[in-house]
Structure to design on (353 residues):
């Protein structure tokens, strides 16, 4: 009988409390949480009490120095390169929330280190684990002719999509009226828009089209770097993408993938991730007997965050191939950096400061 894997967690913010920590407890037959790390001491104390964790740290390096677990789950925001390297040096497998890291050089280095160490580094690409996405991919894989894919997202300030969840917040927390410093800088476009939000569209489009390194045709920022519009292609797969952030809840949440083939149109619509157990919806339209026929399929009611953790531990314990490993994420990091460079160059040509 295989022993339970031990897990250390770094980052105990809202996404960790709403998604990952509850799901890790549900996996008690294959893993157990050894320790958690969080910089805010009040959040750390509250989360430890709520999830029954006895070992707590405010510095992940101290946590890794004290008999590290088999697995490190990285749920912090921003660039994860240093944490992942330290975990691999400690001999750990890693599950990391997107993005893998910010630079293509770091991504290639992490993938190389993981392979040499015989360790799994899996990136949390939750959209891939919805059954509606799998249905769309299967349909496109059967297409032998040209396909046009359009990814569209209008993403409002998400606090009011998650405010109903019971989470431990810092003592000085106050609900925001609108997103702070929303847009207006290239750093915001790179870090928040591209690496935190657009990353979902990038990995989905890579998997749906099979284009790992797309030929970027156009790229430009939207509304003072609040979003990005881009087009690319690979073979007979043509792609356009528009992702825009909003500083209010105006307009609601929109995230969809539209695939047009010679015979059908498929539309995959995702809800906000914070509306747990609200499934994605796949709509198909086609001509049949001279009439336009449409059908709808709902995705699984299983939370994709739960499904991706199930998959991660299946990779470790059953040897199944990892669908979102570091080697795949290298392509996504490179694409994000190329899109940013192209959009910034276009902005400079048109007089953006």
């Amino acid at each position: 009988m295989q022993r339970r894997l031990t897990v250390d967690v770094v980052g105990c913010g809202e996404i960790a409390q709403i998604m990952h920590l509850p799901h890790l407890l549900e996996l008690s037959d294959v893993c157990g949480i050894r320790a958690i790390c969080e910089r805010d001491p009040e959040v750390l104390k509250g989360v430890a009490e709520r999830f029954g964790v006895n070992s707590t740290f405010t510095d992940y390096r101290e946590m890794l120095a004290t008999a590290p677990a088999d697995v490190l789950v990285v749920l912090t925001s921003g660039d994860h390169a240093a944490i992942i390297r330290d975990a691999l040096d400690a001999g750990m497998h890693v599950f990391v929330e997107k993005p893998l890291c910010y630079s293509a050089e770091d991504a290639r280095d992490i993938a190389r280190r993981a392979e040499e160490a015989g360790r799994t580094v899996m990136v949390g690409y939750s959209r891939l684990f919805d059954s509606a996405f799998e249905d769309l991919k299967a349909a496109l894989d059967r297409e032998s002719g040209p396909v046009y894919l359009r990814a569209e997202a209008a993403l409002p300030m998400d606090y009011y999509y998650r405010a109903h969840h019971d989470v431990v917040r810092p003592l000085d927390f106050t609900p925001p009226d609108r997103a702070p410093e929303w847009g207006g800088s290239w750093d915001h476009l790179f870090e928040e828009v591209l690496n935190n939000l657009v990353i979902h569209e990038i990995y989905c489009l890579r998997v749906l089209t099979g284009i790992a390194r797309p030929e970027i045709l156009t790229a430009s920022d939207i509304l003072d770097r609040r979003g990005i519009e881009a087009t690319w292609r690979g073979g007979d797969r043509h792609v356009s993408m528009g992702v825009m952030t909003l500083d209010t809840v105006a307009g609601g949440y929109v995230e969809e993938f539209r695939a047009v083939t010679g015979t059908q149109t498929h539309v995959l619509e995702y809800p906000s991730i914070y509306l747990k157990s609200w499934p994605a919806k796949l709509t198909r339209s086609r001509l049949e007997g001279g009439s336009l026929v449409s059908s709808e399929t709902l995705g699984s009611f299983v939370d994709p965050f739960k499904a991706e953790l199930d998959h991660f531990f299946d990779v470790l314990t059953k040897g199944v191939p990892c669908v979102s490993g570091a080697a795949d994420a290298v392509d996504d990091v490179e694409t994000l950096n190329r899109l940013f460079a192209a959009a910034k160059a276009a902005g400079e040509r048109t007089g953006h400061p």
Q: What stands out?
A: The chain has a mean pLDDT of 94. The chain has two domains: 5-126+306-325, 128-300+334-349. The domain at 5-126+306-325 is CATH 3.40.50.720 (Rossmann fold). The CA atoms of residues 21 and 51 lie 8 Å apart.
